[in-house]
Write a structure and sequence with these properties.
This protein has 13 helices and twelve strands. By secondary structure, the chain is of the alpha/beta class. It folds into two domains: 259 residues, Rossmann fold (3-Layer(aba) Sandwich), CATH 3.40.50; 78 residues, no CATH class. The longest helix has 18 residues.
């Protein structure tokens, strides 16, 4: 069964990505950064995309938004539909009308997303003036209301300040306010809490959940933090070496993990039950070279349970439950060993 057919179909997903393939020309050859990625997210739901650095999760979403540089990058296949409208291949002018209006983005580094020479309120107002066509006075008033909504104190005063006068947490709130200015149906959050301390992280995540409940928007959360995923996500897509290796509900991923890589990520994550003397279990080895992706499973060389077929033939996503899929030969009906036996006692929830 192909990846396109196994993803659960919905009548009207907010964002529906199918078989996305992205390459980059580099000095050493062609990097196959995204290799047939498929997922969907419904209005009011949060999809968590997780994986280690370089797995392709950010490139996937940047490609969907048309933000990868072309050249050297190029989209060589697939589809990405926002509320049923195809995004890939749209002229730049049409994409510009969609970005910021129908789909918003919160970047990992808020300082890079803001113009240091413009006041915060003016930057938010500019979004409204461009996409909604309202006057500057009304847009500035709306900008203050958005800052208040994101719980920035003294919003009217803060709207007249520059980015360098904001703390990291307030900068991220300002970027969230800007991304929500036009009430987008999809919000993409790329590592939105990485540079923040734990207290501010919790405040930002709770703010996103509160706004989602009010607006019913879909959120795509890109992160390497499984704790954030456990708290925020309804569904999870695990990526490795440019592919989806496991997908399912948040309970599927944390309590019924089916791919060795997912289990490895969980074992490498600290938990409240760990003793001080205990050491985290790191995943040995390195990801494969995407200049020349392996013919078989990309995780084979790091997997303690690899079969003979694993380095020769790459598996498709295999159904292991309703809406739960794993790209692993151990899940195949003809596999000699059961995953439940292999990983008995290894299903520690995060």
């Amino acid at each position: 069964m192909s990846d396109n057919n196994i993803i659960e179909q919905h009548k009207a997903p907010a964002l529906d990505v199918r078989d996305l393939q992205v390459e980059f020309d580099a000095q050493g050859g062609v990097v196959k950064a995204v290799r047939g990625v498929s997922f969907s997210v419904n209005p009011g739901e949060t999809l968590g995309i997780v994986g280690e650095s370089g797995c392709g999760k950010s490139v996937t979403m940047m490609s969907v938004m048309g933000l990868i540089p072309m050249p050297p990058g190029r989209i060589v296949g697939g589809s990405a539909k926002l509320n049923g409208r195809e995004l890939l291949g749209l002229p730049l002018r049409e994409l510009n009308n969609i970005r910021g209006a129908e789909i918003g983005m919160v970047f990992q580094d808020p300082m890079s997303a803001l113009n240091p020479t413009m006041r915060i309120g003016e930057q938010i107002a500019e979004t409204l003036m461009i996409h909604r066509g309202i006057g500057k006075t009304e847009a500035l008033k709306r900008a203050v209301e958005l800052l208040e909504r994101t719980k920035i104190p003294e919003a009217a005063k803060r709207a007249r300040q520059y980015p360098f006068e904001f703390s990291g947490g307030m900068l991220q709130r300002a970027v969230i306010a800007m991304s929500l200015a036009c009430n987008p149906s999809v919000l993409i959050a790329d590592e939105p809490t990485t540079a923040l301390d734990v207290t501010i992280q919790n405040q930002v995540l709770e703010l996103m959940r509160e706004i989602q409940r009010e607006e019913g928007m879909a959120i795509v959360l890109i992160t390497h933090d499984l704790g954030v995923v456990a708290r925020m996500a309804d569904h999870v897509t695990v990526m490795y070496a440019g592919q989806v290796v496991e997908s399912g509900t948040v309970d599927d991923i944390f309590y019924r993990s089916a791919h060795p890589y997912t289990l490895g990520l969980k074992e490498a994550m600290p938990s409240a039950e760990m003793h001080v003397e205990q050491k985290l279990t790191a995943i040995a080895g390195s990801p494969p070279d995407l200049f020349a992706p392996p013919a078989g499973c990309g995780y084979c060389n790091r997997c303690n349970h690899a079969l003979n077929i694993c380095d020769k033939l790459g598996p498709e996503l295999i159904a292991v439950g309703e809406g739960h899929h794993s790209r692993c030969w151990l899940q195949h009906a003809q596999a000699k060993r059961e995953v439940a036996e292999l990983y008995q006692g290894s299903k520690r929830a995060c």
